Amino acid sequence: MINVAIFVSGNGTNCENIIRHFADHKNVKIALVLSNKIDAYALTRARNLGVPAIVMTHNHFNDESQMMVLMRAYHIDFIVLAGFLQMIPDFLIRAYDHRILNIHPALLPKFGGKGMYGHYVHEAVKAAGETETGMTVHWVNSVCDGGEIIAQFHTPLSPTDSPADIAAKEHVLEQDYFPFVIEKVLSHSFSPS
């Protein structure tokens, strides 16, 4: 069984979607949901679906001994970032090399990097006059949104689309594709040699 931790900071629609996708999976278990925010609704979603949900404040999250003890306690093999708004510390990147995925609400390398999250991304896409947007799934490294791209999905935009319209279109892609990308990556990452 591959034990997956989902790291979240907000509402948790992707988190819930991923938990539901893997609920009866024979090889993958969502073993933990971790948030850096005590009021993240994703924690409630996880608990409602029977998944342990834990809050780790900034200082605790960046404490190698505390984080690695937690990861070992839940036997975590793989980490998925689903709207997690904190940089991943180097010790975690080393421990989970090519085993941490992130979703970004734009077509990287455009509209990525520090400060580019949530509505800021969609406002930037609108301001740039883009004719399409999309979602990107990428490996996590020490550069914000700089890891190798695994998959991208596109959706067309209209000149009349507001940032909220752009966000809604992009979110459909996340809901439709993110769990399947995770499943495909896990099947390749943990396949017998």
From TrEMBL:
One of its GO terms (cellular component) is cytosol. The active site is at residue 104. GO terms for molecular function: phosphoribosylglycinamide formyltransferase activity. Pathway: Purine metabolism; IMP biosynthesis via de novo pathway; N(2)-formyl-N(1)-(5-phospho-D-ribosyl)glycinamide from N(1)-(5-phospho-D-ribosyl)glycinamide (10-formyl THF route): step 1/1. InterPro entries: Formyl_transf_N, Formyl_transf_N_sf, GART. Residues 3-181 form the Formyl transferase N-terminal domain. Keywords: Purine biosynthesis, Transferase. It catalyses: N(1)-(5-phospho-beta-D-ribosyl)glycinamide + (6R)-10-formyltetrahydrofolate = N(2)-formyl-N(1)-(5-phospho-beta-D-ribosyl)glycinamide + (6S)-5,6,7,8-tetrahydrofolate + H(+). It is an enzyme of class 2 (transferase). (6R)-10-formyltetrahydrofolate binds at residue 102. SUPFAM superfamilies: Formyltransferase. The record marks 145 as: Raises pKa of active site His. N(1)-(5-phospho-beta-D-ribosyl)glycinamide binds at residues 12-14. Its EC number is 2.1.2.2. Pfam families: Formyl_trans_N. GO terms for biological process: 'de novo' IMP biosynthetic process. Signal peptide: none annotated. It comes from the Bacteria. PANTHER family: PHOSPHORIBOSYLGLYCINAMIDE FORMYLTRANSFERASE. Catalyzes the transfer of a formyl group from 10-formyltetrahydrofolate to 5-phospho-ribosyl-glycinamide (GAR), producing 5-phospho-ribosyl-N-formylglycinamide (FGAR) and tetrahydrofolate. Belongs to the GART family. This is Phosphoribosylglycinamide formyltransferase. It comes from Hoylesella pleuritidis F0068. The lineage of its organism: Bacteria, Pseudomonadati, Bacteroidota, Bacteroidia, Bacteroidales. The gene is purN.
